[in-house]
Amino acid sequence: GSCGSRSHLRPQKKLLFFGFILFSKIMLRSLNKSVAMLGRRAVSGRLLSTATKVVDTAPVIPVISVSTKVHEDLPVSFQDVTLASYRIQSGLKKTHCDVSQFLSELCECEIYLKKDFTQFTGSFKERGARNALMLLSAENAKKGVVAASAGNHALALAWHGKDLGIPVTCVMPTSAPMAKVDKCRKFGANVILKGEHIGEAKEYAMKEFADLKYINGYDDPEIIAGAGTMGIEIMDQVKDVDVILVPVGGAGLIAGVSLAAKTIKPSVQVIGVEPANVASYAAAVAAGKPVNGFKEATIADGLAVPVVGPTSFQVARHFVDSSCVVTEKQIALAMLRLIEMEKVVVEGGGAAALASILPEGPLFGQFRGKKVVVLLCGGNIDTSVLGRVIDRGLSADSRLIRFGATVSDRPGGIARLAHDMAELGASVKDIHHERAWLHSRIDQVVVKCVVETTGREHSDRLIRTLRERGYPVTREDP
Predict the structure, then answer these.
(1) How far apart are CA 382 and CA 398, in angstroms?
(2) First CA to last CA distance, the chain
(3) pLDDT tens for residues 124-150?
């Protein structure tokens, strides 16, 4: 559309008008009688009758129990989120939030999956990106915007920039997946590969494109408000939700979702989940301010933000109940469970929330009988990485095991071992024998085996039976 001043201002006035009325209606339904009377006087007469027509065409926003706690000092308000919900609806879809029978049984609570990985570019980042782009001044929209991103934020800006006719420059680190780089270029973005990591890419972007509006992917108020629209959708889709599990990277998503959900229903628990290797939110909570929480690389690369955004943290600390961390093994297993049980492929960051509630996860068994919404926020994963993740998931599930067995170095020694494994129902994926590293007997060799089983019980039975049959077996599982 045109970026001229008249066409730009008119939608802004409508959005502000709608947001004011929508927010007032929500507050009026649940505050005490005296506050409700004040609200009715504020929107009385002709203003109220005109507003009704606007609200009737807007998405239905649930009213369960609006919080009376006001945070006037916060940089993002519930009104900002409701405005964003109306503003972006023409360019995004309302993603499904479906109950999972298989995962509910496994996790011992009622699991709902919020499938935001089904957005066009594969992640929730579209919500904030479109909201930020639509709030640009006419001058900034004409000049364009710049952002540093390794993937999802860049994709979201590139796509919605193309849709809205706003030039987008994406500075991506050299380590960014080439599939995402190519997609950004196909969407018409000006893609520049610079820096070894996102920090260096950001420094370059802000220095070389100082005349363009920089859009932070997790800390700008517009981004947080856009992310919060997912919270409004969840409260509409699962009326009596008890718990919402949110992956945490830069904390923009959990800031927006917790603000929206807690405003509508203060009793709902909002819990953050982050990789143990980059627990930046937990580090910020402990320090009372954003600090570096990076330890080492993680399979959840979309959550690998060393320091949470200060704006996001300022909002999140008011609404988030708690947070927990999950290991690389738990994330890989969650990805495998989603593939096998739900036929869903997500990236590591998208599966982190589910990892926390699975057996052996830090939250398992805490919410029996309750309704738990798990955010699947991203699905952009390279096929080569996916293959490695599946193997790691199988290993974490004890369905892919590795061990060394000592056998005779005479003809038939390895064949006998293979026959015994086949008899026990194990499928050999890899086998290799070593002569040089066994120093006890010259007529024996060590055979390194990688075999697939049906699970932990089968694996334990396999190893136990081989030992009973005289094979010295050394298990090498991580």
Answers:
(1) 24
(2) 56
(3) 999 999 999 999 999 999 999 999 998
What's the CA angle centered on 253, arms 250 and 254, to 5 degrees?
A: 95
Cα–Cα distance, 377 to 124 (Å, whole number): 5
Q: Tell me which residue has tokens 């920039």.
A: 161
Burial class (CB in 10 A: 0-12, 13-18, 19+), 346: buried
Cα dihedral across residues 148, 153, 159, 165: positive or negative? negative
Q: What is the pTM of this model?
A: 0.81
The C-alpha torsion from 182 through 160 and 139 to 12, rounded to 10°, is -170
Tell me the C-alpha distance between 144 and 263, whole Å: 34
Query: Which residue, 334, 360, 357, is CA-closest to 347?
Result: 334
CA dihedral for 419, 420, 425, 431, sign (positive or negative): negative
| Dihedral Cα 282, 283, 286, 289, nearest 10 deg | -110
Q: Pull the structure tokens for residue 185.
A: 């270029």
**What letter represents residue 85's amino acid?**
S
Q: Residue 218 and residue 82: Cα distance in Å, rounded?
A: 18
243-267 residue pLDDT tens: 999 999 999 999 999 999 999 999 9
Structure tokens that stand for 160 in this block: 């919605």
* Amino acid, single-letter form, for residue 215: I
On whether the CB atoms of residues 254 and 260 are closer than 8 A, the answer is no
Residue 457: other Cβ atoms inside 10 A: 10
